[in-house]
Amino acid sequence: MAWGHRRLSVETVLLGAIINLNHPAHVVHWHFFQMSLANLVVIVVMIVVFAAAIALPFPTHGRGGS
Questions:
Q1: For 6-62, what is each residue's pLDDT tens digit?
Q2: Which of 16, 42, 40 is nearest to 28 (CA)?
Q3: What is d(CA 57, CA 12) in angstroms, rounded to the nearest whole number?
Q4: CA angle, corner 33, sides to 43 and 49, nearest 5?
Q5: pLDDT at residue 65 is higher than 60
Q6: What residue ranges do the domains of the chain occupy?
Q7: In whole angstroms, what is the distance from residue 56 CA to residue 53 CA?
Q8: Which residues contact 27 (CB under 8 A, 6 or more apart)?
Q9: Are 54 and 46 in contact (CB under 8 A)?
Q10: Do 29 and 37 meet the contact criterion of CB atoms below 8 Å apart?
Q11: CA-CA distance, 39 to 20, in Å (whole number)?
């Protein structure tokens, strides 16, 4: 199998046309702390989902005893 030529799907070409990844990453600096903005967003979203999972009540069944 030759690695030189591969056929690209239409979805891959369209996604590549919409999102330009040919630029340096945005980095957050805070004293000794350095992290890419994308990773920081993922971590914040994970913390929010974790907090929501703890704060929201569990679904309960009807009050009728069995």
A1: 676 766 666 666 666 778 888 999 889 899 998 999 999 999 999 999 998 877 766
A2: 40
A3: 41
A4: 10
A5: no
A6: 25-57
A7: 6
A8: 34, 35, 36, 37
A9: no
A10: no
A11: 18
Q: Round to the nearest angstrom and report the end-to-end CA distance of the chain.
A: 64
Distance between CA 31 and CA 59 in Å, rounded? 44
Total number of residues shown for the chain: 66
Q: How far apart are CA 41 and CA 44, in angstroms?
A: 5
Q: What is the pLDDT of residue 23?
A: 82
Sign of CA dihedral 55, 60, 63, 66: negative
